[in-house]
Design goal:
Two copies of one chain form a homodimer. By secondary structure, chain A is an all-alpha fold. Helix content of chain A is 78%, strand content 1%.
């Protein structure tokens, strides 16, 4: 009897066991477990490259799907830990952090690309590389904040809020750059930009206002169900619905899932939670535990180890990464008085999957017949993204631990 | 920013919301929620057929994967509720139930196929149809038993145990029939049969003996981990590993997952459970809640509504289903004294995915150049499988509710 999921079962068992061992090694080295999971992914890819019989984790559609769902569920869980009013309170600080965190890395990326890339490189390429360094990959920082029990701190909220703004800004930059490249095919960029912005902001506004009005009614309807075990499927269904709608509006699906978590307040679901004797947060937690390591291992596995360690690309990557980290650390100051700037700054450092989506989009853009992003430039940017992705959790874990020790002393 | 999982998010939201509404309607009609979920799947397929813009649930690889994982996780959870010694206690009863439940439906199926199919139909086809009616689709009964709080009753254990034996027997029948059809290509069936049996039994014996020796050591090693949230990923990793090994030995992957659940006894993991403040059963539960409805909706969605309601096939389907139900109800008597034969019998009635796997295998077998299973015969057998799949949970839910009322009276 051939079983179509059998291969996936083996792969998932391998990923979970190795992710937990890698995470444990990282914890023993006083690093966040996420860094260990990223390293496990890289190691698995190296193993596959050197011994082709070893399964190719990065190429499995099953792990791709589960990892993708994992980060959506993770951001839903993060959203559940805050409410809309709490987020509005840190809204201005998030906006400042996001704006500085987009302007500075773009300027720095522009400068770095201009310094290192051959003369005559079009300005739009420098701009594009700068854009790749803007968007924060919030999944990683969210996981580190959870590990260290700082998810519902002021800094945690500012970071996540800024990441949402980042996503909108990043989207705009991508549209602007694509418009600059393809004015022939794409028409004038101005109206398109305005439309993209309106759609993204419109979705967020509608979700946070309408959603907050509708959600309580939906869940009080569900409370009349006689069947059992409705809270989690309905909660996840709600989150996935908003994630999908958000992606229709051009946002990353994690933004919609996060908005769903914000909208669902304890008051809306307390009756269902009492009846099922578990809170929604408690029920979502095992899903996060199981799915999010898949996402992080997969992210590590997608790195091309050969491209990464070529000296020329390594130089570009290190410089871009340094500039990117510096820009985000300065952005942390945007958090304002009484906020730990180092925590916010380091939280904004990782640029994982969002940057990778940018690079993939850039690889498809063509200018004067040649691809906008050469293979070398592409490897350099990916290298920089990877470096920030590893540096982010390490730095964030470090400042969180330092400050905890100070508080205890 | 194109998001590869966006479409899946929409589909999953749709499935969860409709599954819960369908389950609720079934509960209001005093039927098990599973029957509602099956009906929702069928309805979704009808919607897709009549309005092609509606997503095709049955054709989505993502739901296929998640549903497949869902039933594996469900059987792991069922296994966790029993231990190896408890299962050995009901072993003889399970064996009797399984043997009667294979011999009678095969004989009945043979008779039915001989009555209804045109003269000159080869005996091996009648045999094959009988075989399709043997294997119990335990996922459905397991879910009904869980819904009614009867998972850890004697009858519940006998049913699940008999389903494991069923699976081994069904495998043997499939190999024997394939051998009879393809003696030219397959060689003599005798040695192959013996090897298949040895492999399947060898796996079960090794898992239940070696596994029980090794598991405590593995989990006490994990207990030394400093990282958090290791219990669930390691537990699932263990289950998926055994499920995969089981499928290598020719068994359905749910048998391996169930064995993993049996092996893991509370004593092995109590330290980890205490540290993480949740039992493994508690942590697996949300996964079952979320994944298993996908499996049942998908099962309903895979039914071809047109083939089902053609009069000729409907006649064959109804007759085969009646014979199949009668055989399994008689098999329930094999449970022995003090065991509610009706509960055991109805629990063995559903023949969902295992029978479908058989039919799919049969569709690939050729005899004298023509496919062994004609399109009509195939539709009839699938119809019979579907009827038992709906009748099973309805009957099981009914006898469980009746006997509960009697006890209370």
């Amino acid at each position: 009897m051939h079983d179509p999921v059998a291969g996936t079962l083996m792969l998932l068992a391998l990923l979970w066991l190795s992710a937990k061992v890698g995470g444990e090694l990282a914890v023993r080295l006083r690093l966040p477990a996420v860094t260990g999971e990223l390293a496990v992914g890289l190691t698995l890819t190296v193993l596959h490259r050197s011994w082709t019989a070893f399964p190719d984790v990065a190429a499995s559609p099953a792990t791709e799907l589960l990892g993708g769902l994992g980060v959506v569920v993770l951001m839903f869980a993060v959203g559940l830990e805050s409410t809309v009013p709490q987020m509005l309170k840190v809204g201005l600080a998030s906006l400042r952090v996001a704006l500085i965190g987009v302007v500075l890395p773009m300027a720095a990326g522009l400068a770095g690309a201009w310094l290192l890339l051959p003369a005559g490189t079009p300005l739009v390429l420098d701009l594009f590389i700068g854009a790749c360094l803007c968007a924060t990959s919030i999944g990683i920082s969210a996981q580190v904040l959870r590990e260290r029990g700082a998810s519902d701190s002021v800094e945690g909220r500012i970071i996540v809020g800024a990441a949402v703004v980042d996503d909108v800004l990043g989207l705009l930059v991508l549209v602007a750059v694509s418009g600059m490249v393809g004015t022939a095919s794409g028409g004038p960029a101005g109206p398109k930009l305005a439309w993209t912005l309106a759609l993204a902001l419109g979705f967020l506004a509608a979700a946070l206002s309408l959603g907050r009005l509708v959600a309580p009614h939906l869940f009080s309807l569900a409370n009349r169900f006689r069947g059992e075990q409705v809270l989690l499927p309905l909660g996840l269904g709600f989150a996935f619905l908003l994630a999908w709608l958000g992606s229709l509006a051009g946002l990353a699906s994690i933004v919609g899932a996060y908005a769903a978590g914000l909208i669902l307040e304890p008051a809306h679901i307390v009756d269902l939670e009492r009846r099922e004797q578990h809170t929604l947060v408690d029920l979502v937690h095992p899903l996060v535990t199981v799915l999010s390591p898949l996402f992080f291992v997969l992210m590590g596995a997608k790195v091309d180890p050969l491209a990464l360690f070529r000296p020329a690309t390594l130089g570009l990557a290190v410089l871009l990464a340094l500039l990117g980290v510096a820009g985000k650390l300065l952005a942390g100051l945007g958090g304002g008085r009484g906020v730990r700037a180092a925590v916010v700054g380091w939280g904004m450092v990782p640029r994982g999957e969002v940057g990778l989506i940018f690079v993939a989009a850039g690889a498809q853009l063509h200018m004067n017949g040649a691809p906008l992003l050469s293979a070398d430039a592409q490897a350099g940017v990916i290298g920089a993204l990877l470096l920030t992705t590893v540096a982010g959790p390490v730095g964030l874990g470090w400042v969180l631990r330092m400050q905890k020790t100070e508080q205890q002393a």
